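Q: Please design a sequence for this.
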């Protein structure tokens, strides 16, 4: 069978150890054919897995050739193993940091690709093992008592008495954005996220996005990056959207989250360095922990401390027709509810490991993640499709915060904080190197 990729030239140096440092340009040129093979493999997996390729703006012929060849999962697995072996035999010690990161990143992304292929072939692992294999991070486990005590602290500041999840649902209903005001609220929040981001990060010339409202999706928002600094941001309007989602989604999907992350990778790695592996984004890979972690952390980058409530009071609450006098209390509750985020991971772990049923997972989400019954069922469907991907949001956010603060980017030093954040958005760093 003819395949244009089986002739991939593996450099002879692979088999010989080099005790002396290699010039950067030589190392980069050794990685070039391997990075092309990686891109072709990601596109190939995408032919079997419609959720796999999150973005691609590399050469169109790589995509059309992949579609024409249409390799089987077995063939993809074989080529992925060859690629991993070739990368493992390269030695990047002594080259500059960025190239060393590039090498390790390409290898780890390729290993995750092979893991995803195995999963598509039917090999399912336990939740924690899968998370580590795909996302290069081990999710922490919390006992139920941890969530019971957090829940109690939410109950202490919520109005009323009785069952806390039910009280929270009643309370939150008062803060829904009316459907006919959604666009005004979201557009304002994204514009403000962009304005605040642009004060610290040089955005690529002509960067832009379009915004769409969609239904019947397992997610609440999505950024589809199109290349050349352009994104399509979709918001799911299946359910009423509470006011806190405006800034959260604006920052997460837009500025300084996914849109900025993808734009900076394109600008710094694809265009300036010619590292084509970044022209494709494999969703089920370590890259997603960095992407989701920086997108979530981006909310507190753009709206640190009390600046968020001030903006909500002055702009978004009035735009949404909500009482600004209640913003302070609402965000005090919101802050505590966010600490329950790991309850979602726990539900996913138990459900995907077969310990609890879908209905039990939904009930757990209502009880400890304070989701409405409808949203909790939507979330179990997210688990079906994205599986251990759920760890990327909260664990990713925590790892990114720790990394940035350990490098001196503490909240009392916003200049340094933005600098480290921007560097992280523009470099191929692996989750396991954040700790
Ligand atoms: Zn995201």
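A: Design:
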């Amino acid at each position: 069978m003819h395949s244009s990729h089986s002739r991939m030239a593996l450099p002879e140096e692979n088999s010989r150890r080099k005790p002396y440092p290699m010039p950067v340009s030589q190392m980069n040129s050794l990685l070039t054919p391997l990075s092309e093979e990686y891109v072709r493999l990601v596109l190939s997996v995408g032919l079997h897995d419609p959720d796999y390729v999150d973005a691609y703006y590399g050469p169109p012929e790589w995509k059309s050739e992949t579609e024409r060849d249409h390799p089987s999962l077995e063939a993809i697995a074989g080529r992925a193993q060859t690629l991993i072996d070739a990368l493992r035999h390269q030695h990047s010690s002594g080259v500059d940091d960025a190239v060393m990161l590039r090498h390790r990143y390409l290898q780890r992304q390729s290993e995750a690709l092979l893991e995803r292929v195995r999963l598509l072939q039917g090999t399912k692992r336990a939740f924690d093992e899968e998370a580590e294999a795909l996302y290069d991070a081990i999710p922490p486990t919390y006992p139920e008592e941890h969530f019971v005590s957090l829940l109690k602290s939410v109950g202490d500041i919520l109005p009323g008495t009785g069952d806390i999840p039910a009280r929270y649902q009643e309370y939150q209903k008062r803060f829904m954005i009316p459907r006919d005001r959604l666009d005004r609220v979201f557009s304002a929040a994204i514009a403000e996220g962009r304005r605040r981001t642009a004060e610290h990060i040089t955005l690529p010339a002509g960067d832009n996005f379009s915004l769409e409202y969609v239904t019947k999706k397992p997610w609440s928002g999505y950024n589809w990056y199109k290349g050349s600094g352009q994104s399509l941001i979709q918001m799911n309007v299946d359910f009423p959207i509470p006011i806190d989602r405006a800034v959260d989604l604006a920052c997460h999907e837009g500025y300084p989250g996914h849109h900025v992350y993808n734009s900076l990778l394109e600008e710094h790695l694809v265009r300036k360095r010619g590292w084509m592996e970044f022209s494709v984004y494999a969703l089920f890979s370590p890259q997603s922990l960095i992407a989701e972690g920086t997108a979530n952390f981006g909310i507190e980058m753009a709206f640190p401390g009390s600046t968020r409530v001030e903006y909500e009071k002055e702009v978004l609450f009035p735009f949404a027709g909500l009482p600004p006098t209640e913003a302070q209390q609402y965000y005090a509750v919101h802050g505590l509810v966010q600490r329950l985020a790991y309850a979602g991971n726990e539900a996913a772990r138990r459900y995907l490991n077969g310990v609890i049923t879908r209905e039990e997972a939904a009930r757990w989400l209502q009880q400890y993640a304070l989701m409405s019954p409808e949203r909790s069922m939507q979330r179990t469907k997210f688990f079906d499709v994205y599986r251990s991907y759920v760890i990327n949001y909260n664990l990713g956010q925590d790892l990114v915060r720790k990394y940035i603060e350990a490098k001196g980017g503490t909240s009392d030093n916003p200049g340094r904080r933005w600098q480290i954040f921007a560097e992280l958005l523009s470099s191929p760093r692996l989750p396991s190197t954040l700790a």
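Q: Thanks. Anything notable?
A: Residues 252, 258, 292, 295 surround zinc ion (CB under 6 Å). Residues 1-19 have pLDDT under 50 and may be disordered.
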